[in-house]
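Propose amino acids for all 412 sites.
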């Protein structure tokens, strides 16, 4: 494929120098399949060719290649002020491809752009490999560590010995007031885990995990976040269904609003989870539990149209893909929440809560007001405990007002 991308034989000969020569064509074909343009592929091949010549100069075989060697090369390029835009991502992509082919070992620590990224990558590997946490849990833990380091050290190399208890409590107090009790609780749990990891590695001597304050989160202390049924319909109608992206987004919003699917479940949805013969879809939820939900008419029709006409061609089995290269599934659930936020804004719907979960809460609230029981709602939302569903007993605020006793001595 390299011969089709480059015109001059002298250029091709120069690109093919070094131990990565035999993998260039496979790499070019792989990224072409992911939707990258020829111009982008040419730029990536030049990056890999430069790296290949450096490997030859250092007498490093492809089989010995790992993320530390890539990291070392990138640091050299930065010192020489020769690093190109997208160079780290290209080499990470190359390393992943070589790992999938069995040329190099897989499950290596990701290549780091800087010292801060390096420590959070190591934290990620620790949680995944030593603690055995699920990838979805990592999506909650690692960003908290990244945010703490970014706010404490900005662009400087982290000096962990300089972290004080006041820095920890200040971070929690600053962010907790902007979060729901549940999200604030996740934040402090993630922060404690990060500090325990640093102490486990010997990076810090002080038990900073003990300095992380507790955030109160009383069971059933809040009202569920929901939108009126009319507002939900406005959100569903706001997508521009004359475009492929608009039709994809409309299908995602239907899954959230009609079936109460979580954002992370949308991200992980596979083509193998859809059973057209029975009109059911398998949702793989929390704790590895699966459930079959019916493909109601509008959801099934939108999903079929998207898969038939709008989903980009890709080797991945994920249902919902990016529409720009790389043509792969979404990275995490925050992409879905961002999609919902944009839809609310476009539809002119004002809400204090704008994430994907607001549509799940809205579905449950609507069903309850139509006469559905808490048991039925718990079954639809796949709650593992009845206590989780109990919060919806409080959604009929008007009815609750009639139960409120007058204040003794108050006005008539």
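Proposal:
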């Amino acid at each position: 494929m390299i011969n089709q991308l480059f015109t001059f034989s002298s250029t091709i000969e120069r690109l093919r120098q070094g131990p990565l020569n035999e993998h260039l064509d496979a790499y070019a074909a792989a990224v072409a399949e992911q939707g990258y343009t020829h111009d982008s592929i040419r730029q990536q091949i030049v990056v890999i060719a430069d790296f290949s010549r450096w490997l030859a100069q250092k007498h490093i075989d492809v089989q010995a290649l790992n993320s530390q060697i890539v990291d070392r090369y990138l640091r050299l390029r930065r010192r020489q002020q020769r690093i190109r835009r997208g160079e780290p991502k290209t080499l990470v992509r190359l390393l992943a491809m070589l790992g999938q082919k069995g040329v190099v070992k897989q499950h290596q620590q990701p290549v780091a752009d800087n010292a801060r990224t390096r420590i959070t990558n190591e934290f990620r590997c620790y949680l995944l490999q030593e603690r055995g946490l699920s990838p979805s849990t990592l999506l909650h833990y690692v960003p908290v560590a990244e945010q703490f380091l970014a706010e404490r050290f900005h662009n400087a190399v982290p000096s962990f010995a300089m972290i004080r208890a006041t820095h920890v409590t200040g971070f929690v107090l600053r962010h907790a007031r902007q979060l729901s009790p549940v999200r604030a609780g996740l934040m402090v749990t993630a922060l404690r885990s990060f500090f325990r990891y640093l102490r486990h590695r010997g990076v810090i001597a002080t038990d900073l995990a003990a300095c992380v304050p507790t955030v109160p989160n009383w069971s059933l202390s809040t009202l569920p976040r929901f939108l009126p049924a009319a507002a939900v319909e406005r959100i569903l109608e706001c997508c521009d269904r004359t475009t492929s992206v608009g039709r994809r987004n409309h299908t995602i919003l239907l899954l959230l609003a009609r079936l109460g699917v979580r954002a992370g479940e949308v991200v992980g949805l596979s083509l193998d989870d859809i059973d057209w013969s029975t009109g059911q879809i398998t949702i793989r939820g929390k704790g590895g539990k699966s459930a079959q939900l019916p493909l109601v008419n509008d959801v099934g029709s939108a999903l079929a149209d998207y898969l038939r006409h709008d989903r980009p061609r890709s080797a991945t089995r994920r249902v919902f893909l990016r529409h720009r290269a790389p043509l792969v599934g979404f990275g995490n659930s925050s992409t879905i929440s961002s999609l919902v936020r944009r839809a609310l804004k476009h539809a002119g719907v004002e809400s204090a809560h704008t994430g994907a979960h607001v549509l799940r809460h809205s579905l449950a609230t609507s069903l309850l007001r139509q006469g559905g029981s808490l048991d039925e709602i718990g079954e639809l939302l796949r709650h593992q405990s009845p206590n989780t569903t109990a919060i919806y007993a409080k959604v009929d605020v008007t009815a609750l007002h009639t139960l409120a006793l007058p204040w003794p001595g108050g006005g008539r």
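The chain has 19 helices and three strands. The chain has a mean pLDDT of 83.
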